[in-house]
Design goal:
With 124 residues, the chain is of the alpha/beta class. Helix content is 15%, strand content 30%. Strand 7 and strand 8 form a beta hairpin.
């Protein structure tokens, strides 16, 4: 069981929220509250990292019909809408179109698959 007593913050879409002083009974409770800000969190798992809860996005349901794939400002229509999301990600990398999505997370909302990139420290 995770120690929720040390949790002071939650990060939603890169925005850090102070939850210090709130009564937290479970990670599911945090997730439900976060979904009010971003419904896409339904496809994510809450993870405690020190004093902060972040959300790790997971792949959508295999067989979900994906009609749009969003990478940054570019939008694509997959030729096989019922393809596994991981296969779509691999195709974007293998084709050379978007090699940067290889380690990106994605979220599926309705019929749209959107890639999210983690901020990193160059050279770390």
């Amino acid at each position: 069981m995770s120690n929720l007593s040390n949790v002071k913050y939650v990060v939603i879409n890169g925005q850090k929220y102070d939850i210090n002083g709130e009564v937290i009974n479970s990670l599911d409770e945090i997730k439900e509250a976060a979904m009010e800000i971003d419904a896409g969190i339904a496809n994510a798992d809450p993870v405690i990292d020190g004093d902060t809860v972040t959300f790790k996005y997971r792949a959508g349901t295999k067989g979900a019909e994906i009609k749009r794939v969003v990478v940054g400002t570019e939008v694509y229509e997959p030729t096989t809408p019922d393809a596994d999301p991981k296969d779509i990600q691999k195709a974007l990398v293998d084709s050379g179109l978007h090699p940067e999505v290889e380690n990106a997370e994605f979220v599926i909302s309705g019929d749209t698959m959107t890639f999210r990139f983690k901020a990193g420290t160059k050279g770390a």
